[in-house]
Write a structure and sequence with these properties.
The complex is a heterodimer of chains A (283) and B (314). Chain A is an all-alpha fold and 283 residues long. Chain A is 79% helix and 0% strand. Classes of the chains: A mainly alpha (283), B alpha/beta (314).
């Protein structure tokens, strides 16, 4: 019978069990970094089980946006699709990765309602590491979202003046930008009652921000009041830095502005998220 | 015997559990079982009063408690998207084992829990019994000194339930202490050395299973009479013969009484027949949780759960 081969007989269970239970090792408490990395490992393993689906989800939007925007509006905006592609591609990278950070909040919200979090909360490790690990394990997702447009763009005729190094640096700063923005949605993910709340409310904020940025058009072509809004929009700050690095003409000020923005967002929302997570745990 | 922990929960529950035993908390839904063990495992803070486990205060020394105590909740707290092996490895690592040792510890535990064949499958493909075994295996990674189980067999089929009972017995043989909650008198009886019966946040009885049974009688005689109008006569006869309080169920033809000797039940049935009371059905069986509650509190356990009493009497 199959059951008798799967389940050891009574005596066997007790003996084997006793053998593994006498090992009281009392390992030292895991550090904050170790615990965060362990949670990141968990996220990576989960992603591995759904690798193809994840890749499709992350790359579909940016590719479709890049192709349609370039061929639909390129001629009208810049006179030629080829020229517009050079302008718009770094902006599409920003748009793609910002949208993926919302998913981080949504998935965190679903994740922390699961049974395993009851166990996490009763274990002796630095509690915010569960959230930190979740965000860490999303870094590959951000990397894919940012860089998927590059090969597609190259096929379409994208020729960055900054070369491979410029491209690499642009990807790097955008992953940094995305991870700081992800703290905003992580905070929402911790407090929201339902995942739908996060996706709907964040889209209400994100779409206006994306459209009132310099992703699609140069602010100089807009009315003065809009130009002023576009120039202070954080999405524009990220786009300007990425565009400059891509084309090899970024100024130190543009990069510094982006990094300062990232530091401010993280400085506010990372402690806030951890506080919210802790107080939620204490009930 | 040395008491290792005295507990005073928010609702005035006072328990002392000795090392190396299975202690059962028996009560219906909503009695406060889960609240009590959540306080003991540091998931909830008591609003007033204090609790200490293994000599550590659950509020001020929460981390020390967490290092020695494991909680297995009512619902499997494992990650459905990871495999059994990955769950054990992750939680071992979070308990402070090195990655290498975490992996070997996971492998050690899979065998005795009958999970080595399913080790590489995602938990969402597991049966209820397999999930529960994995859940318990995870709780035992660090060989906790105190293992707390919240209704470990609720919702399991009889085969899986027996497996869980075997595991709990083996855990105690391994030198750990087990505190479990249950709604089933039989489960408490099978496993626990001592039982606290709690109701509406208060301990209403405490002792060995033998003590509790002695207080309510070893069994119950249930009698169904031909029509509701026969019940007062039946009650008179039973009161005279058995000399115990007779319970009248919401089913108008049903009555029951605790009995201390099966022979006296036969005598009572004989008396009913000779008095001309028409009995259509009777059973003699172990006292149910309902009857323990009735005997201890004067009200039915199922009143708390909105289940009609007396429904399951044959």
């Amino acid at each position: 019978m199959s059951t008798s081969t799967i389940h050891a007989p009574r005596e066997g269970i007790s003996e084997a069990m006793a053998a593994v239970l006498v090992q009281r090792e009392h390992p030292a408490r895991i550090g904050a970094v170790g615990a965060s990395l362990a949670h990141a490992w968990r996220g990576m393993r989960k992603m591995r089980h759904y690798a193809i689906a994840t890749l499709m989800e992350v790359s579909f939007m940016p590719i479709i946006t890049l192709v349609t925007i370039t061929y639909l509006f390129g001629g009208a905006f810049s006179g030629s699709t080829g020229e517009y592609l050079q302008y718009v591609l770094p902006g599409i990278m920003v748009q793609a990765v910002v949208i993926v950070t919302v998913w981080t909040g949504t998935m965190l919200n679903v994740d922390i309602t699961k049974g395993i979090y009851d166990r996490f909360r009763a274990m002796p490790f630095w509690q915010p590491s569960t959230v930190v690990g979740n965000l860490l394990s999303d870094l590959p997702r951000y990397f894919v979202a940012v860089s998927i447009t590059i090969p597609v763009g190259l096929l379409m005729g994208f020729r960055p003046d900054g070369g491979a190094l410029g491209m690499f640096l642009a990807v790097l700063v955008l992953v940094v930008f995305a991870s700081s923005v992800s703290w905003i949605f992580a905070a929402l993910g911790v407090v929201a009652g339902r995942p739908e709340t996060i996706s709907s409310s964040s889209m209400m904020v994100l779409f206006p921000l994306i459209y009132t940025s310099n992703i699609f058009a140069q602010p100089e072509t807009m009315p003065g009041w809009l130009e002023a809004i576009v120039k202070v929009n954080p999405i524009s700050v990220a786009t300007t830095a990425a565009r400059g690095l891509t084309h090899g003409n970024a100024t130190g000020g543009q990069i510094a502005a982006l990094l300062l923005l990232c530091a401010v967002i993280t400085g506010i929302f990372a402690p806030l998220t951890m506080h919210l997570y802790r107080s939620k745990g204490a009930r | 015997m040395k008491a290792f922990g005295e507990v005073q929960a928010v609702d005035g529950i006072d328990l002392a559990v000795n090392r190396g035993m299975v202690y059962g908390i028996l009560g219906p839904n909503g009695a406060g079982k889960t609240t009590t063990i959540h306080i003991l495992s540091t998931l909830l803070r008591p609003d007033s009063g204090h609790a200490s486990v293994l000599g550590h205060d659950v509020v001020r020394e929460a981390d020390a408690v967490r290092a020695k105590v494991s909680l297995t909740g009512q619902f499997a707290s494992v990650d459905e998207d990871l495999t059994g092996q990955e769950n054990l490895t992750l939680l071992a690592r979070l308990m402070g084992y090195t990655w290498k040792r975490a992996r070997s510890r996971a492998t050690e535990l899979l065998g005795p829990f009958g999970l080595d064949e399913a080790a590489g499958r995602q938990v969402k493909t597991y049966s209820g019994g397999m999930r529960r075994r994995l859940d318990i295996a995870v709780s035992l990674i660090a060989s906790p000194e105190l293992m707390i189980l919240d209704e470990p067999t609720t919702g399991l089929d009889p085969h899986s339930r027996n497996e869980v009972w075997e595991i709990i017995r083996a855990v105690v043989e391994g030198g750990s202490t087990v505190l479990l909650t249950t709604q089933y008198l039989e489960e408490a009886d099978q496993l626990a050395g001592r039982i606290a019966v709690i109701d509406r946040g208060k301990v209403i009885a405490e002792g060995t299973p033998g003590d509790l049974k002695a207080s309510v009688g070893p069994g119950t005689l249930r009698v169904r009479v031909h029509s509701a109008s026969d019940r007062p006569a039946a009650k008179l006869v039973l009161t005279r013969v058995l000399d115990v309080p007779i319970r009248l169920h919401s089913d108008p033809a049903l009555l029951s009484a605790p009995i201390f000797d099966p022979a006296i039940a036969a005598h009572a049935l004989g008396e009913l027949a000779s008095e001309g009371v028409l009995v259509t059905d009777f059973t003699v069986g172990q006292s149910s949780l309902d009857e323990v509650f009735l005997a201890l509190t004067g009200h039915s356990a199922s009143e708390n759960t909105d289940v009609r009493e007396g429904e399951k009497v044959a």
